[in-house]
Amino acid sequence: MKYFLIAGEPSGDLHGAQLIKAIQSVQSDAVFVGHGGDKMAKTGMRIIEHVDQLSIMGFTEVLKHLPRMLKIMGQTVEAIQRYKPDRVILIDYPGFNLRLAKNIHHLKIPITYFILPQVWAWKENRIKTIKKYVDQSLCIFPFEQAWFESRGISANYIGHPFVDRPPLSIKKEDYFASHGLNPKQPLLVLLPGSRKQEINRHWPIFLETVTLLKKQKPEYQFILGKSPHVTIEPCPDFIKIEKDARFAMTHGSAAITASGTATLECAVEDIPLIVCYKLSRVSWWITRWATKVKYISMVNLILNRMLVPELLQKEMTADRLSSAIIPLLESKSAVRKKMLNGFNEVRRSLGLPGVYERAAKAIAER
């Protein structure tokens, strides 16, 4: 079997790599090519376009890069025509992947969508595209299956991939020692995002926040979670660097996190957090106009209540971020305990282990 996969973001690269491994366990002769990142490349998949060249967020940001993305779209269609895969697997990344599904429909290649777009939150009109062009739909949240099926799409709920992650082996003391940190002092994890546009908007505010906190609480320590391919400057020496953010989440005391996959990841790793995000004015206006949900964080969406603070746009200031994070860094605070209790509910809602295996089995049997 020949598969063509498209993952356009670091989170998609992670899920794609695990899915490939699961497919390889049931189809030893399977071959993979497409768009992805380093993790997918390590499985043996041939990478055509790296995720670093594909991650774009926001309406105005997409417009700015539209010529390049249109070129990549054309090249992707051509590559699929040449490669003639038995199945195309789309992983999240709906802005690109749904257009691709439409553009390759004439090739009559079956399409699996792994991690369906969150059309229940915004852009519900995308339902029509999914229904018309996607052959197999795999969803990861328990409420999604009924939602999609009520709109005429046969969706298969497989559970959330985060439940499949093995525990990290490194002890807290060893982790802190490896970064020259004191395990007895609070550690704040900084997660400004993975896209260049996110970092450009968020990092100056993160730096200002850290400066305020360092003056108020000299004992606080700081670590920045970022991909090796991402450049974040300036970064003072007292802020440590972690190339695999999960290690920082596991051993950190609290986190300031840009909205995205990392918010749910923090809940799974049991680290209290505040969520923040800043878009251009035009992108923000369009987002608020098109969005139908009350919250931006998946943690709050799953619980249908505000557990994790959300500081967006004008509310995302150093003063507000520092004020909100201090109680979460205090080990005995009531705010911290309440959030950690809420995380138990979130984890229970994500399903049972074996997500990638269930997805691979569903794909292989299609």
Description of the structure:
The protein has helices at residues 10-26, 38-42, 59-64, 66-83, 94-103, 126-133, 144-149, 172-178, 196-216, 245-251, 261-269, 281-290, 298-303, 318-329, 334-348, 355-364, and strands at residues 2-7, 31-36, 46-50, 87-91, 111-114, 136-139, 155-157, 187-191, 221-225, 239-242, 254-258, 273-277, 310-312. The chain is of the alpha/beta class. Helix 9 links the parallel strand 8 and strand 9. Helix 1 (10-26) packs across helix 16, helix 5 packs across helix 6 (126-133) and helix 9 packs across helix 14. The protein is globular, with a radius of gyration of 21 Å. The chain starts with a strand and ends with a helix. The mean pLDDT is 92.
Number of domains: 2
Structural class estimated from helices and strands: alpha/beta
Strand content: 15-25%
Q: What would the average pLDDT be, to the nearest integer? A: 92
CATH superfamily of the largest domain: Glycogen Phosphorylase B
The CATH topology of the largest domain = Rossmann fold
Number of helices: 16
Spatial gap, N to C terminus: 12 Å
Query: How do the helices and strands follow one another from N- to C-terminus?
Result: EHEHEHHEHEHEHEHEHEEHEHEHHEHHH
Q: Percent helix among the residues? A: 40-55%
Which CATH class of the largest domain is shown?
Answer: Alpha Beta
